[in-house]
Design a protein that fits this description.
The structure is a single chain. The chain is 33% helix and 24% strand. The protein has three domains: 103 residues, 3-Layer(aba) Sandwich (Rossmann fold), CATH 3.40.50; 66 residues, 2-Layer Sandwich (Dna Ligase, domain 1), CATH 3.30.1490.20; 92 residues, D-amino Acid Aminotransferase, Chain A, domain 1. The strands form three sheets. It has a five-stranded antiparallel β-sheet with strand order 11-10-9-12-13. Strands 2-1-3-4 form a four-stranded parallel β-sheet, with helices on one face. With 300 residues, it is an alpha+beta fold. The radius of gyration is 19 Å and the shape is globular. A hairpin with a 2-residue loop joins β9 and β10.
């Protein structure tokens, strides 16, 4: 196998995330370099980078892409024009960047947290949305977002009080409304990690008391129980169906009535929780090696 130049993609940090995320990146970079791969850490929107010199671009942590979504799409277009292979595949990344995909999956019969699309330029009808979702509390989040940015958990009264500010945001971008799932507070949110479609490990994320956000930078905690077989099987089925050709995939979901209900299918820049599972970094390396041995024609 000829030497391939690999860019491991990160972002220009502004201190939004904790050191645990940076530790995963630096440990992974070190391991890949120790294994003899020609890997460099690159900031995706650094204008000084010559992307043409790379054979492969691996999206690891472009965590600000949703703040600069048009620039991100333009960058993907440029990589495509240059013939640079991207993992995960560009077509999949574009599809996954907009949470409209959850509505698509819902329409295809996938068990997804019920989702109502709020089109840019429209107004939030609080009563109608609550009725449609059959819930007295809803989550409203941007269609293109991450890290719980501009995400609201609202009761009927709160939604009415905040409707004006949400409607201002709706003039700038589309949003998604979902019922609040109390099981996220009581049971937690599962994350199933896969490399090249093969199962690697699982974490269970729980929010701090009184919060609904499970991200570690909001005080959430991470546990590593053995996942129930039926939940893991459901996550694996989702990866088989929607993450074809992907180096990595993270399935986030909650157990409702004994079934896995999808919250997010993370195929762009998920934190991979590799430090929680012995051998996970090695499994990532093996998966990347498999991808490097495949013909580069599967670029898009």
């Amino acid at each position: 196998m000829e030497t391939q130049q690999i860019a491991l993609i990160t972002y220009k940090s502004t201190g939004n995330y904790t050191g645990v995320s940076e530790e995963e990146n630096s440990k992974l970079l070190g391991l890949l370099q120790e294994k003899g791969l020609h890997v460099a850490l690159e900031i995706w929107d650094d204008p000084a980078v010559d992307w043409a010199k790379y054979d492969l671009v691996v999206l690891k942590s472009p965590w600000d892409y949703f703040d600069k979504i048009e620039a991100f799409y333009t960058w993907l277009d440029k990589l495509e024009e240059l013939g640079v292979r991207v993992l995960n595949p560009i077509r999949t990344v574009r599809w996954n960047a907009d949470k409209r995909y959850l509505v698509e999956l819902q329409e295809q019969g996938v068990k997804v947290v019920p989702s109502v699309w709020l089109e840019q330029g429209t107004q939030l009808d609080v009563a109608a949305t609550l009725a449609q979702l059959q819930s007295e509390r809803i989550i409203v989040k941007p269609a293109v977002s991450g890290g719980a940015k501009n995400t609201f958990a609202l009761t009927r009264a709160e939604a009415g009080a905040k409707a004006e500010s949400i409607n201002e945001l709706l003039q700038q971008e589309s949003f998604l409304a979902q019922p609040f799932i109390p099981e996220i507070q009581t049971q937690g949110e599962w994350s199933f990690l896969f490399f090249n479609g093969a199962y690697s490990h699982t974490v269970l994320k729980t929010a701090k008391p009184g919060d609904f956000r499970v991200q570690h930078f909001f005080g959430g905690t991470v546990h590593t129980p053995e996942p129930p077989a039926h939940l893991l099987e459901a996550a694996h089925n989702l990866v088989d169906a929607y993450a074809s050709g992907c180096l990595y995939a993270r399935v986030d979901g909650v157990e409702l009535n004994g079934e896995l209900v999808l919250m997010e299918l993370e195929l762009i820049e998920p934190f991979l929780f590799m430090a929680t599972s012995e051998g996970a970094f090695e499994r990532y390396y093996e998966a990347l090696l498999e991808q490097l041995q495949q013909p580069s024609a599967s670029m898009a």
